[in-house]
Write a structure and sequence with these properties.
Elements lengths: L3 E6 L3 E7 L2 H6 L7 E3 L2 H11 L4 E6 L1 H12 L3 E4 L6 H13 L2 E2 L11 E7 L5 E6 L13 H5 L1 E7 L6 H16 L3 E5 L3 H6 L1 H8 L3 E7 H8 L4 H8 L3 E7 L5 E4 L4 E4 L12 H13 L5 H16 L8 H15 L1
Parallel strand pairs: 1-5, 1-9, 2-7, 3-8, 5-6, 9-10, 10-11, 11-12
Antiparallel strand pairs: 2-4, 7-8, 12-13, 13-14
């Protein structure tokens, strides 16, 4: 039996979330609904504009949100990341420790600036992110923990790593180590912009095929260069043995290697879409590493992601995860 259910690699970012109007994005030349990489000066400029808004802070990054969700459901998880020896780095590590996630960072942090992500939520619940990677831009193979990868059921790779040469190389090496040691591989496209601008890099990270791919329908169709979801799904079968496509209010579509499975949505009033895909992946990974079928794992993930979008912030309280399992199990009886 493996020590860890999921080993994740991703950018370590402190999320700072603000509620804004669409006019704020327009007035400041911010592309809505995607993640945009910015330099430190640009982020400081935006922070000065956001001083008038009340913000919330949490340790984040796409894969971190997924790993923490899986841990809160009851999985054993490890996360490889890179944070600096600064105040935000202290905050980030404390948050991971509170969640019970094991980590490669064991005290020897380098000087620098811990990455920050400004998450701007508009009234339509859409999330727009401007990210300064800081020290996580130099995430590399040095941050990988080989014994933990080998002792995991799944390796989970964040697609955002593709934007950094050293991080992309680390993701490729982690996948190779996993494949050589019988560890299943999972990857998320993370964001439509990653598919649009870094497709060749994603192909390198994927290799011949990953065991499990997560994406939303926009990312799936962009990957296949089509506006037809069925065509996109056939394309995904060429790079993934199984996959999960989140479709917002339409639920999700899964492929378990043999059959397509439709997962029903849960009607909620969406106020913040930030973290929905991360939560879906975390809940789903928990499900399939704890004896559940794709259909059962999909139902857990669907309810969990619905709960996330109905509140502000990318994560749920730890106690909420067990309540979700009780609801789903009760429905199954």
């Amino acid at each position: 039996m493996k020590k860890y259910h999921v080993y994740g690699v991703g950018n370590a970012l402190v999320d700072m979330e603000f509620e804004v109007e669409d006019s704020f994005l327009e007035n400041n030349g911010i592309d809505k609904g995607v993640m945009t990489l910015v330099d430190e000066d640009r982020q400081h400029q935006l922070m000065s504009y956001l001083d008038a808004f009340e913000g919330k802070k949490a340790s984040g990054g796409s894969a971190a949100n997924t790993i923490i969700a899986s841990r809160y459901f009851g999985g054993q998880c490890f996360y490889s990341c890179k944070v600096a020896n600064d105040e935000l780095g202290d905050f980030y590590m404390h948050d991971l420790q509170l969640a019970g996630v094991d980590c490669n960072v064991d005290g020897g942090r380098k000087e620098g600036i811990t990455g920050k992500c400004l998450v701007m939520i508009t009234p339509d619940a859409e999330r727009t992110m401007n990210t300064y990677l800081g020290i996580t831009a130099t995430f590399s193979v040095d941050e990988l923990h080989l014994p933990a990868i080998i002792d995991s059921e799944y390796l989970y790779i964040e697609g955002y790593l593709v934007s950094s040469d050293t991080a992309r190389h680390a993701a490729v090496e982690a996948r190779k180590i996993a494949e050589e040691n019988g560890v299943k591989t999972a990857l998320t496209f993370s964001d439509p912009a990653m598919v649009q601008f870094f497709k060749d890099g994603l192909k390198e990270m994927i290799g011949d095929k990953v065991d499990l791919l997560f994406c939303n329908e926009v990312e799936a169709m962009s990957w296949a260069d089509t506006d037809n979801l069925q065509t996109a799904m056939e394309s995904l079968k060429q790079i993934a043995r199984t996959f999960a496509i989140t479709r917002g209010s339409k639920g999700a579509t899964l492929f378990d290697g043999n059959s397509m499975i439709e997962i029903s949505p849960h009607e909620v009033k969406a106020v913040d879409s930030n973290g929905a895909g991360d939560m879906f992946a975390g809940a789903f990974l928990y499900g399939i590493t704890h004896g559940h079928s794709f259909y059962e794992a999909g139902n857990i993930a669907s309810l969990a992601s619905a709960r996330v979008v109905s509140q502000f912030g990318p994560r749920l309280a730890a106690s909420d995860h067990q309540k979700i399992l009780e609801i789903v199990y009760g429905e199954a009886e």
